[in-house]
Amino acid sequence: MDYKIGEHVMYIPVGVCTVTGFEDKCFDGRNKKSYIALVPEAGVGTVCYLPEEQAEDKLRSLKSADEVQELIAQIPSISPCEAAPRNDRRALFSEILKSDDTPRIISLMKLLAQSRSERESAGKHLSAGEENAMKAALTMVSQEFALVLGISESEAADRIMMRLAG
């Protein structure tokens, strides 16, 4: 797919980025390659360079407004993902967050939201790893939803969290 300067894209697993250019660079001192320059929405001053040959696997256009609205409507019916044993959770969280599978990311958020609720009723908190996974998942999904729907990221996050709660 051909991307255009100024276009917003999803760069897996970085999140929403803006295409800022196409450049030939030599990062290893020997081999010049063609790169797509990307600026993450969340990374002020950061530029990511993605080799053009990896674009098909790592970039995609943003969802349409209709697709986003449909996903938001489906949140209550998405089942929480299956909890992994404590030793395997970090790998599971990482795998899901790198998947670019929005319903699966939402299923992770649903699992973590339920776990948070259960633990809070027992006077406990999520682990730092679980909190970080929830924050990363919510950021990834709400960035795209906000941009597509023309709302703030916090408003998109609030909509998602309301639907997660039922």
Write structural notes for this entry.
The protein is built from six helices and five strands; from the N terminus they run E-E-E-E-H-E-H-H-H-H-H. It has 166 residues and is an alpha+beta fold. The protein folds into two domains: 8-61, Beta Barrel (Thrombin, subunit H); 65-165, CarD-like, C-terminal domain (Methane Monooxygenase Hydroxylase, Chain G, domain 1, Up-down Bundle). Strand 3 (33-40) and strand 4 (48-51) form a beta hairpin. The longest helix is centred in the C-terminal third of the chain and has 22 residues, at 128-149. The radius of gyration is 18 Å and the shape is globular. The mean pLDDT is 92.
At the fourth level of CATH, the homologous superfamily of the largest domain is: CarD-like, C-terminal domain
Q: Name the average pLDDT.
A: 92
- Poorly predicted regions are none
Sketch the topology as an H/E string, one letter per element: EEEEHEHHHHH
* SSE-based structural type: alpha+beta
Largest sheet, strands/sense/barrel: 5 strands, antiparallel
Number of discrete domains: 2
| Beta-strand content bin | 15-25%
Radius of gyration: 18 Å
What strand order characterises the main sheet?
4-3-2-1-5
Shape annotation: globular
End-to-end Cα distance, whole Å, is: 38 Å
The CATH class name of the largest domain reads: Mainly Alpha
The CATH architecture category of the largest domain equals Up-down Bundle
- DSSP helix fraction: 40-55%
The CATH topology of the largest domain is what? Answer: Methane Monooxygenase Hydroxylase, Chain G, domain 1
Annotation field: number of helices: 6
Strand segment count: 5
